[in-house]
Amino acid sequence: MAINMSEIFQYNFMVRALLAGIIVGIVAPTIGTFLVSKRYSLMADSLAHISLAGVAVGLIAGIYPVYTAIAASVGAALIIEKLRTDKNVSGEVALAMFLSGGLAIAIVLIGIAKGFNVDLFSYLFGSITTVRETDIWVILALGIATIFITYFFYEELLYISFDEEAAKVSGIPTKLTNLILVVLTAVTVSLSMRIVGVLLIGALMVIPVVAAMQVARSFKNTIIWAISFSIFSVIGGLILSFYLNLAAGGTIVVLSLLIFAAVSFLKKS
């Protein structure tokens, strides 16, 4: 059966999903490149679980869930960074605590709300049919702000990603730069929920970056390749989910894994 690609653009929800997906496809691997280089990949998953608790709060309180998710994940990111820099606990331990703690809080709140509903399920795994015009504007505004801040602090973020001690000696404000990175991560996680879902956003921030590292020759080149792989995965995943009636988030991540497998195979051959 032939597939009519123009059919997609006849549906407003698909146009909104593709627009949001492209923005997410650019922002997620950009921030993910710094996280992977810093060996801080678990941060995305930890904040995703916290943002799920924020979504539950928003749904219970009748507040736009993206706002409560951002508030929860940014607050958690600041606390995690405070614990890490004060040496109270190691970074890995802090992330593990918030990862499991965020999910536990979300489960309790879901119980209070009398179980899953359609809205919460769409935030968990992503849903192309629930992306609203409000989501587009919020994702666009946050995406532009995230890219702008990343560009402005690029050199500082690059230094702390590879050698934080050397960056500190060089006079770079490492505490402030680390705070900027974790806040950008929290915002990226929150704005990606509608497309990929909170349980899978960490994968979109990491897998395209790891695939890009197989072929890139510089840090900037890694970001460019990662964005290319990510956008291909997002657009391809959304199209496949539309025609095959699949979960958008899962399809996007599976495509990312296939790209990584293909790149790794070609590199070895």
Radius of gyration: 18 Å
- CATH hierarchy, class: Mainly Alpha
Q: Strand tally, please?
A: 0
List the secondary-structure elements in sequence, H or E: HHHHHHHHHHHHH
CATH architecture: Orthogonal Bundle
Strand proportion = under 5%
CATH superfamily placement = ABC transporter involved in vitamin B12 uptake, BtuC
Helix content: over 70%
Q: What is the domain tally? A: 1
The residue-averaged pLDDT reads 83
What structural class should be given to the helix and strand makeup?
A: mainly alpha
Characterize the overall form: globular
Oligomeric category: single chain
CATH level-3 fold name: ABC transporter involved in vitamin B12 uptake, BtuC
Q: Major β-sheet, in short? A: none
Residue ranges: pLDDT <50 for 5 or more in a row?
none
- Terminal CA distance reads 35 Å
Layout of helices and strands:
Layout: H1 12-37, H2 42-61, H3 65-85, H4 91-112, H5 118-125, H6 133-152, H7 154-162, H8 164-169, H9 174-191, H10 193-196, H11 201-213, H12 219-244, H13 248-268
Helix pairs in contact: 1-6, 1-7, 1-9, 1-11, 1-12, 2-3, 2-4, 2-5, 2-9, 2-11, 3-4, 3-9, 6-9, 11-12, 11-13, 12-13
Structure explained in plain terms:
The chain is mostly helical and 269 residues long. It has one domain: ABC transporter involved in vitamin B12 uptake, BtuC (Orthogonal Bundle), CATH 1.10.3470.10. 80% of the residues lie in helices and 0% in strands. The protein has 13 helices and no strands. α1 packs parallel to α6 and α1 crosses α11. The longest helix is centred in the N-terminal third of the chain and has 26 residues. The mean pLDDT is 83.
